[in-house]
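Me: I hope this is not a bother. Any chance you could explain this protein sequence and its structure tokens? It all follows right here:
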Amino acid sequence: MSRVVVLMYHIVAEPLTAMEARYCCTPRRFEAQMRHLRESGARLIALERLANAFDGREAWPDAGVAVTFDDGFADTFANALPVLTRHRIPATMFAVADRVGATNDWMASRGYPQRRLMSTSELREMAAAGVAIGSHTRTHPRLPEIGADTRREEIRGSKERLEHLLGSSVGTFAYPYGLFDEASRQAVEEAGYRIACSTRSGFNGLDVDRYLLRRVEVYGGDNFWQFRQKIKFGANEVSSFYPLRYYAGRIASRLGF
């Protein structure tokens, strides 16, 4: 199987309100999910391996699973990093460069609880522990809705700022809100990133645009069987009937219906 699943998390903590519950994977559930990945024999990979495969520098990691986090919440450092370290799971964390050490103001302005983002020292410690740090722009804007000069600064400037903070290269990018257009995608490539993630669900293969990788979001309310189905079927929305629909669709496709 050439299909690679990229998982997407946001906050690893107990939700503070019902509004943010979707984005909060509790520490207990996160521990169970990471333990399952390690014990199931899943091929756990870093996004760097996908970039190398696109470059032709190594083989495509068939049936691989990658773990990513958006935004750089301090809870990721406190609650997720120890679990990742304990289970030896590679991961990528996309930081909002100008909000390092600040708060999630782009969410708080819309009524979500205010949460602290990682400090520079926490970001460096996470990188030293083996978690790759990627860019999530400078201020988390809606890229298709801003001007060309501002868009380039959000994309290129965030890379430069994070590289200055970390003292190492930053080669991965994730689009805020999952929003992009052709100009945004082109700006990411021109800025020198090796790979970029969208929020479109699905599997990844060499036929997928390396600057629009698909990701499967892990919701805070996902049960264990839903988590396993998401990995198996590469889908955000799963149910007890999903496997039947999935395989029926594949059979119909092969028969030419």
